[in-house]
Amino acid sequence: MRPTLIRADDIVETVRATLQYIAVYHAPDYLSHLIAAHGRERSPAARDAIGQILESARLAALGQRPVCQDTGMVTVFATLGQSVVIEGDRSLAELVDEGVRQAYRDAGNPLRASMVADPLFARRNTRDNTPAVTHVALVPGRALTLAIAAKGGGSENKARFTTLNPAASVADWVVATVEGLGAGWCPPGVISVGVGGSAEKAMLIAKAALMEDIDMSDLLARGPQSRAEEWRIDLYRRINALGIGAQGLGGLTTVVDVKLATYPTHAASLPVALVPQCAANRHAKVTLTGEGPVYLDPPDISRIPRIAAAAAGDAPRRVDLDRLTRAEMAQWQPGERLLLSGHILTARDAAHRRMAEMLARGEALPVSLKDRVVYYVGPVDPVGDEVVGPAGPTTSSRMDGYTQMVLDQGLLSMIGKAERGADTVERIAAAGATYLIAVGGAAVLVARAIRASRPVAFEDLGMEAVREFRVEDMPVTVAVDARGGSIHRLGPARWRGLATAVDAPVGRAGP
């Protein structure tokens, strides 16, 4: 029998098209579970956050723009049939990288390049998001299957690994670990657990399992049919009972599914990996059979309800950023929703590091931080008449080490996502400042509030340059008030254990 010949250009085009697809569309299985979570959510703050994610998903699909500004590090699990011949002299990894390059440089929908070539020293951006992380398995068959994911840094940074005593409870370790992750991985999402093999095998099977269909609603409806399904349901309920909720604001849904993958291991070992998946949940699987590139059909956008405008709770407080004072901020409460209008600055890790270096040399900063608000964001490049591309927040805890520096410069407030460290919260309160959060995964919705943008410092840093935005009715939530009250502490404490009110628990399911 003749081998299956797959053209190199077909692989490149399939990777390109798939990455563009998952950048724009949420997976339908995730959307259906998220819509259900919104319907049963009783926490006003969490319900509002889920509503913003859903509305932003609708806008992203309609406008063909990324659902999140962090368009991810590309990971590919390739299953190559042994009867397949790939045309040409380029390796499969090289073909994948070319597909990534074309997808991220697409003129009509450019995706944010986040990969740095040297992870330890220079950390210079590759500008095209290459290389991908490609894993290849050789199996019997006549096709090439590519499971393609684009994983954001916030959720990737929360992956965890441990080697337990064989008699230890994996479930208990998972629950304790998720409780300690904070909200930087952007819940509600999926938690995947890999058990067995070696250290690297446990991590690989956990990440691969994230790409399986979300089927928790089916399991709950029909009941578990195996010990593994019992274990997944038990973990799903125990994690949601933590009360972490959407964006860590406190609520009933932290995860929409829990995945489990296992592999034989040494008798003395119990390797366990935990990999979270954020609210973007970007992944798809395609199979090439030698008949040309593969294109995925767009999902039915009409399934996404228009619900963000109907968020529960009191009307948001409107804030004029250009006249904001510490006395006005002192009135804000943790969990209160605000609509910001006026001018804000942007800065991420690299910009903060450069400012610290300048101050250490006794140099003046290129832009004053006095009485300003800084937004932790690295937006996607704009297209057409856009002022800025999708511009959701990045994980704020990475800036904790610079907080005192910017407070000393007179900064009033910061905007990002997820919790701040305890020391940082104390420093914010001591300065009479505040910390606000935008919804991770609502990048298109946030970008619509940005009416003007101009670079003001460090343009060579690309997406990490300092910009000045003019915003109008930008939705945020007070995460840390001027007295040090934190919604990421108060919210989960309020909702802990209440998920059982909508989804009765089952008995423990073993290890």
Written overview of the protein:
With 511 residues, the chain is an alpha/beta fold. It folds into three domains: 166 residues, no CATH class; 127 residues, 60s Ribosomal Protein L30, Chain: A (2-Layer Sandwich); 167 residues, Fe-S hydro-lyase, tartrate dehydratase beta-type, catalytic domain (fumarase, Alpha-Beta Barrel), CATH 3.20.130.10. The chain is 31% helix and 23% strand. The chain is built from 15 helices and 17 strands. It has a five-stranded mixed β-barrel. The protein has a four-stranded mixed beta sheet with strand order 4-2-5-10. A four-stranded mixed beta sheet has the order 6-9-7-8. α10 links the parallel β11 and β12. The chain is globular, with a radius of gyration of 23 Å. The N and C termini lie far apart (48 Å). About 2% of the residues have low confidence.
List the helices and strands and how they pair.
Elements: E1 4-6, H1 8-24, H2 28-40, H3 44-63, E2 73-81, E3 84-86, H4 92-104, E4 133-139, E5 144-151, H5 153-156, E6 160-163, H6 170-181, E7 189-197, H7 199-209, H8 216-222, H9 227-240, E8 255-265, E9 271-277, E10 283-288, E11 317-320, H10 326-329, E12 337-346, H11 349-360, E13 373-375, H12 403-408, E14 413-416, H13 422-430, E15 434-437, H14 443-447, E16 450-457, E17 466-480, H15 487-495
Parallel strand pairs: 1-3, 2-4, 7-8, 11-12, 12-13, 13-14, 14-15
Antiparallel strand pairs: 2-5, 5-10, 6-9, 7-9, 12-17, 15-17, 16-17
Helix pairs in contact: 1-4, 2-3, 6-9
Largest sheet, order of strands side by side?
Answer: 12-13-14-15-17
* Estimated share of beta-strand residues: 15-25%
Total beta-strand segments: 17
Largest sheet: 5 strands, mixed, barrel
Annotated CATH topology of the largest domain: fumarase
CATH superfamily of the largest domain: Fe-S hydro-lyase, tartrate dehydratase beta-type, catalytic domain
Contiguous low-pLDDT stretches (5 residues minimum) are 308-313, 504-508
